[in-house]
Each structure stands twice: as structure tokens, then as C-alpha cells.
Amino acid sequence: MAKRFSALLLFSLMALAACVKEPKPDPLPPLATGPFEPRLKEGWRVHAVSYEGTMPNPFDSTTTAQFKGEAYDVGGEFTFTDRNDSALVHYRIDFMADLLAGMVPLHYNKEGDGIWSYDSTIQTLWFYAYPDTLEFVVDYDADTLQLWHSDVIIDYPAMNITLPTRMDIELRK
Predict the structure, then answer these.
(1) DSSP H or E run through 20
(2) How many CA atoms lie within 13 A of 139 on its CB side?
(3) pLDDT tens for residues 41-80?
(4) For the chain, does the N or the C end have fewer beta carbons within 10 angstroms?
(5) For the whole model, what pTM was predicted?
(6) Under 8 Å CB-to-CB from 95, ≥6 apart: which residues?
(7) Mind listing the domains of the chain with CATH numbers?
(8) What three-state secondary structure class fits 30?
(9) Could you report the per-residue pLDDT of 99-113, keeping only the tens digit for each?
């Protein structure tokens, strides 16, 4: 009888553990109200980066390979200021990415100082830091969270190629 009870108790606990739901990710904060530009000037830290694209397959040169993932060792910031009627920006995006298993990790580091502009009709930011121009589409605008994406060209020196890549960036205060 004790064996049966122990077995029944063990089975019940296992069934209960299997039914425990995983916690849902935090919902997005409410959308911000008011003008976008003043919110930018409060300063933003790069919190997360994801990426995806296509590259020549290093294991079969007749095909291409898809890469997609979450970056690690992420850092950076966007600082917006006004000086003498000029909208200035300092930006830094820094992360590591594993494009394909068995390949050398990619270190992406882009930093610049320049001017910026925003077109609210297409929700697009431009950063002009000669010789680079970065373009980000604002996908989500909240008081404490910004979600942007950009199509960038990433240099990958391990294969001596450049990779057209979609980069999604999460910024937090």
C-alpha cells in the first residue's frame, strides 16, 4: 500500500510539474505620446541586438546559407544633443555574433559622431557621420523602450566578404 501511495504521489507531482506554464515575456510598455525628438535627447543604451541575412555557404560554395540570431556581449549608446542649431548624435553599437556553427564569431563595432534627422511620415532616423550614413526605421516608440531596425552591410574579415544584414536593435533608458 505504501509503495502504491508513493508511486501515485510521485506520478501526481510529475503531472503537476509538467502542467506549470512558462512565464510570458514582459509586455511592451505603452506607446509614447507627444513629439519623438525630445524623447531621444534623454539618452539611450543599446540593450539587445538580433540579426539575420544570407551569406555564401562556407561549406558548399554552390549554395547560400541563412544566418539569424541574438547577439551577445552587447553594448553601446545613442546620445542626442543640440548645439548651435545643429542636431548632433554620438552613437556606438558593439556586439558579438555567431553567424553559423563552426565559424569564427563576428565582432561588430560601429561608432560615430555626426548630425541626425528624423522623418515622422516614414518613422525613419538618419545619422550622418562621414563617411557613414546609418538609417533606422522606428518600429516601436515608448518612453523607456525603443525598437528600431536597419539594413546594414557588415564586414566579415574571417571570410573576406561583406554581408547584407537586417539588424534589429532594442534601446532602453
Answers:
(1) none
(2) 11
(3) 888 999 999 999 999 888 888 999 999 999 999 999 999 9
(4) N
(5) 0.81
(6) 46, 49, 71, 72, 73, 74, 75, 76, 107, 108
(7) 35-172 (2.40.128)
(8) coil
(9) 888 788 999 999 999
